[in-house]
Amino acid sequence: MDDFILNFKSKVDVQKVRESFPEISDSEVPIWFGSPTVMSMAAKYLLAALVLMTHMIFFWAAKFEDIDGEGNANLVIGIAKSILDFSGVLGFVIVMFAIAKINHFLNVSSSGKWTTTWLIINGCVPFVIVLFDWSGKILGYFMDDIPDTPMWMDWYYPLLGIISFVFAVSMTTHYRNSFQYAITDKRVHIRKKFLYFDTSSVGIPFEKVENLKVEPPLIGRILGFGNVYIITDGRQSSYREANDSASKSIFSNSILSRWILIQRNFSVSSEDPSECLYCINEPMLVYRLINELIDNS
């Protein structure tokens, strides 16, 4: 091994790597170990903060007077008040559904199905409560002894927002920690362990690697992290794209569903952390490391 490879090897905790990757054979020598950086999930954290802020804005609009002055905050509060005056809590539901749709359409790292579902649930919770309230009032005209139905209260806005924010941040952090990567003198290992039942592990022998590609996201170019894609059999895995196409074909005959499922198309590689070395630090050095290990194998 040359000095470049030995420098990486000297920084690796071999025992920790073997504990994390029990499938690594005794004949393999761990060279590098990593995982997605904290900032790799920045888009999801920012989205969680936006959702919390939206809940708090509607709470302030429903409960308090305008903010003094003519700044942007007062403008936003005023818009929220107008929405509530016109349609009540259903206006908040529409805003949350709009955020979900815009985020889904942008087709960025925060546009996955789990994030979209979480956003829709944020809109559905008050909608369901209002629906129960209306149902109880309607039934009260025709039947006696109708049990009290839940009503949407103003303080539910911050309660739902805080619960949603904590849940989103916790699950995003756990998701990021679910992926680990290791490079030995013979293979590249990618391991996923999410929620203790969604687990997978793959080892890619160097002889099957046909090409490598480094593709840092926009924020990664600034902070020094990026994705390293390992291309085998002449192409890169397209698991995410295949699943998206399959799901879209099911509803392709409906105009409404086409609008719901439509996403911005742009030419990027899959950002599934189980299909590449996702948002790792110093991706160019890792790229060079793999190339040199391939040359030495």
Please characterize this protein's 3D structure:
It is a single chain. The chain is of the alpha+beta class and 297 residues long. The protein has two domains: 3-34 and 190-296, no CATH class; 42-175, no CATH class. It contains eleven helices and seven strands. The protein has helices at residues 3-10, 14-20, 42-63, 72-87, 89-106, 113-140, 156-177, 218-223, 239-250, 255-261, 283-296, and strands at residues 30-34, 179-184, 187-194, 198-205, 209-215, 225-232, 277-281. It has a four-stranded antiparallel beta sheet with strand order 1-2-3-4. Helix 3 (42-63) crosses helix 4 (72-87) and helix 5 runs antiparallel to helix 6. The termini are close together. Residues 237-252 have low confidence and may be disordered.
Short description:
With 297 residues, the protein is of the alpha+beta class.
Task: Tell me the layout of helices and strands.
Blueprint: H1 3-10, H2 14-20, E1 30-34, H3 42-63, H4 72-87, H5 89-106, H6 113-140, H7 156-177, E2 179-184, E3 187-194, E4 198-205, E5 209-215, H8 218-223, E6 225-232, H9 239-250, H10 255-261, E7 277-281, H11 283-296
Antiparallel strand pairs: 1-2, 2-3, 3-4, 5-6, 6-7
